[in-house]
Amino acid sequence: MKREPVFIYSTAYTDYHFNADHPFNQQRVVMTKELLEAEGRLFDHQIVTPRLAKEDELALVHDPRYIEAVKQAGNGQLQQEEAWQFGLGTEDTPMFSGMHEAASLLVGGTLTAIDSVLNNRAPQALNLGGGLHHGFKRKASGFCIYNDAAVAIKYIREHYGLRVLYVDTDAHHGDGVQSFFYHDPEVCTLSIHETGRYLFPGTGSTSERGVKNGYGYTFNLPVDAFTEDESFISLYESAFKEVAEYFQPDIIITQNGADAHCYDPLTHLCSTTKTFEVIPRLAKEIAEQYCGGKWIGLGGGGYDIWRVVPRVWGQLWSVMMTGDILTGPLPAEWKGKWERMSPVSLPDNWQDEAGIYKPIPRKQEITEKNRLTLNQCLQYCRNKQQYNNS
Amino acid sequence: MLVEEIMKTKVITLTPKSTIAEALKILNEHPIRHIPIVNSGKQVVGIVSDRDVRDASPSIFQQDHASDELYNPIHTIMSTPVVTVHPLDFVEEIAAIFYEQEFACVPVVSENKLVGIVTEKDMLYTLIQLTGTNVQSSQLEVKVPDRAGILPEVANIFGKRKVNITSVLIYPYKSDRQYKILVFRFQTMNPLPIKADLKAAGYQVLGPDAEDPAL
Fold this sequence. Notes:
B: CBS-domain; Alpha-Beta Plaits; 2 domains; about 30% helix
C-alpha cells in the first residue's frame, strides 16, 4: 500500500477555547478540514485521532507545579493571585473549564503525528491543532498553555535520538520553543517573524544565537513591518536552505502560523497566499533532500480565520500530500456554509487577487533592510561553513 | 534606580607602584577596559584605561626593542584626580557624567574607599531594562496632551483589561510641545482591544497600525 501523510484531527480541538471574544479560535481547524474534504483532497482513511498527552510527557519541558496549576485552573480551583505567576487568568490566556485536558489534546496530537512518522506509518504528518510556540517552562503566554512543539522535540530526542530542525514561519517570534533548546546543539531552531519593535513578544533579534554548546543552532530572522511576498519568500528560501545544509537534520518540524498574511488583524506583514504556497513546498523539498521525507507540520497563529487560515492550511496539506497546490475557485458548498457565519465576505478563489492591500511606499527600503537582516542571521553559519571547507 | 543596584563589586585594581606590564597582563586576561589605582587604604588615587596602557607600551613594530617602558610605574601614566560616584547616587547622574566628560567608567566610592565600579556597558544594560525590550511584550505609542494626570488616565485603560505594563517611557512630541508621547511595553499578544479603548477615549495611537494598508 502506498504510504500517505496523515491528518491528525478531532472535533475536540475546539474545546481549546478561551472565550467568545478571544482571537485564538480552533474553529479554523474544522473549517480547514471541511474545505479540504469539499475539495476532494482529504479522505477519512487519512485522518488519525489524536491521543491525550500524558503528564510525564508534558513534564519533559514543563514544571510539574505549572502543570498542577493548569489542572487547578481548569477545575476553577486556582486563585487569581496564585495564577499570575503562571501567566494564567490574563487577557491572553484566561482560565477556562477543562483547560488542562484541552491543552493536553493539542500536545497529544503533535505526539501522534511524531509517532505516525517515526513508526513508519506515514512519511509526513500534519497537526493543525498544534504549534503553540509561546508556552514556557512554567508560564502560559501568547494564547499558549502547553508547548506541543517543544514536548514533541524532547520526545524525539529521548525516544529516537534524531537531530531536529524546527522552522517557524508564524509572524510572532517562536520564543517558547527557542527557550527550551537554546543550549542544545542537536536541535536547531529557525524563526522568521515580524520584528519585535512593535509586535509581541518583542524578542527574536539576529543576535539571539544560542548559548554554550547550542551557540550557532538558534537562528532568528526578524523582518520589517509591511514586508511583502517577494521579500518574505526570498528570505525564507535562503535561510531554510542554508540552515538545512549547515545543520543536516534527520527530521523537520514546521510551525505554520498563518498570521503573516496582510489580512491578519494582529500583525503588520503583507504576505498573500503566494507566500503560503512556497512555505510548504520548500519544507517538503528539504525534508526529501535531507530527512528521507520526514516532516511534521503544525498549526500556530492565524487570526483571520475566515479569509486566510483555511486556505493557507489547506495548501499546506495539499502540498504535503500531493506536492501540488490547489487552484481555482473554492468549493461552493463550503463557501455557502461558512459565509453565513462570517463577518466578512469570503474569497472566491484559492489564490488572492492582486491589489488586496494598498501599495507599500517604503517597499524598496524594507526589501533592502530585510536583505541585511538575512546576512546578519546567516553570517555565523556561513563563516563556519567556509572554515570547514577550507 | 541607585548606583549600588547596578555597580559591579568585584573590582580588579593596581597600586601606584605597579608596573605598566602588570596592567597590560590584566587587560589581556580579563574582559575589562579600566583599572582603578588604589593606595593601601583602598582610596582611589588614579585610573588607567586600556588606551592609556597601550599608548605607554612599545609599538608592535619594534620587536627587537628592549621594552624598558613596560617597567615604568603605573602612576606615571594614570589619570588623576578621578571622577567618582557614591552608591546612593542615581544611575541617570552617571549617564550625564559619561556624556559630558566623554569617558566610559566611574569608580564607586563610599567613606573614601573603593566599593564598586560602573561602566558604559552597565549603563546600557540598565537602559535595556528600563525600555523593557528584554521581556515578552507588545509596544505602542500614544500621543497625549502634555498635562498633569494624563499618565494614570492612559495607564488605567491597560489595568482595566488586566494587561501588565512592563515599561513606560515619556518623551516630547517632535516640535509641538503641547503634546507628548507615552511609550508602553505591555504583556499581551493581542493589543487590539487596548488600541480600541484608547481610541474610544480620544487618544491618538501611533505606530504601524495607523498606516496599515490592509485595515
